[in-house]
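Researcher: Go.
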Amino acid sequence: MKRFLRLVLEADGLCTLDWTNASFDVPRSVTAVVADLDGLGWSSNTVDAHLVALGLDDRLPRLFICVLPPETQPKAAAYLQPPFSPAEFLGRMHDVLGL
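Model: Structure:
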């Protein structure tokens, strides 16, 4: 799924960074986060805790991909349930970014 998401974003002219290594410093210029909660095995709260631990704002626009709908929706976050088309993913990402 990561490759699919990355290709869709890059085809739209957006820069992407695949952050999968805890020892890798995340640049402070991050403008949004896309997280596959099922793939990570994390909750949205765990993602937020990792963002804070990295020194990023937990109000950073986030798009969480998850099969099950959220019980609560964190601020500045949106959810997308698979299956979804590239156009639906990109549209939701544009909404998150305010484009």
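Model: The radius of gyration is 13 Å.
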